[in-house]
Fold this sequence. Notes:
The chain is of the alpha/beta class.
Amino acid sequence: MATATPLTPPPPIVTFDDVRAAHGRIADAIVRTPTLKSKTLSDMIGAEVWLKFENLQFTASYKERGALNRLSLLDAGQRARGVIAASAGNHAQGVAYHGARLGMPVTIVMPLSTPMVKVQQTEGHGARVILNGETFDDAYGHALTVAEAEGLVFVHPFDDPAVIAGQGTVAVEMLADVPEIDTLLIPVGGGGLISGCATVARAHGGIEVFGVQAELYPSMYNRVRGTHLATQGDTLAEGIAVKEPGALTARIVETLVDDMLLVSERDLEESVALLLQIEKTVVEGAGAAGLAALRAFPERFAGRKVGIVLTGGNIDTRLLANVLLRDLARSGRLARLRIKLTDRPGALYNVARIFDQERVNIIEVYHQRVFSTLPAKGLITDIECETRDAAHLDRLMQALTAGGYEASKVELA
């Protein structure tokens, strides 16, 4: 009987040599961001936590690594014609900045809903911006049409071997600085970063790699786990809100990544706030995903030496303020109390005396007389206040109850 000829496995999409070559190609034009141990986070979580501060890149994101590697490989004719990308975020900034630095024309297609500040930032790097479509998919399709019509090179945000190799340089630097790292937690959108980093980790040996996605956008999680969870919603981690992972990156993730983890919006919010409070560093929602997973699954990483990539710091200041205020509310340092009163002179004064006695600062007061289920002589008062901590807030609640008032906390989602 003839024996079957064993199938030769396909060559890897990206190799460690590709990533090392990419690092040599781009190292002089990017920031070699630090990898620093967080003693406070390590003590909190029970693992040795190392942070890679990619939010310190010039464009405040690791994305410029892959963009620059792709641009560096273009020939003279391609550079003269120019490049095009579809993005409303960090990829746009990376392509626009390094394209201008290398002297090539850059076109970025963005959805019509893109905030004007992002449009202006991209134009500030000298790029031509085309607004088209309501969604990223619309913008992506239009970018391909323009690329074909004008002979431009399309720079994909993640599903391109050169881009993947460029993103993998993050792990090259991390493991050069801290070779004892045994676990990587990597945010995943389209999968370019984790594909590059997992390639490096496997070459290094002895490192587990975990991908992290927002619960609202579990696209790569679905692909790896064989699930069919919905991918939609308004997530804080818009940088990894990708409905469909890349074809190339999905193959790499299925081969090289140990597991995919999902984190909630609350996990993301709290991690953004924690990084600002403890590390004094600003990260966007996607940039906090690794820490969010570490906090959500502490038992899984106990005693490990964990490397986390803070992938970017491009967060709207108003959104950041909202995240921080919500964190204060969850910790009990900021509260809104709903108190039932009788509509008579001195009612609010008597309540305010209790706040004064408990040394609680009143920030705002809202009276509601009409739209209420109380009798005509009753009213509801919402009082926003500032306390030292949750225990201080509990003492205030007890004092209000002892004073004969019916009070409740207005809880956050």
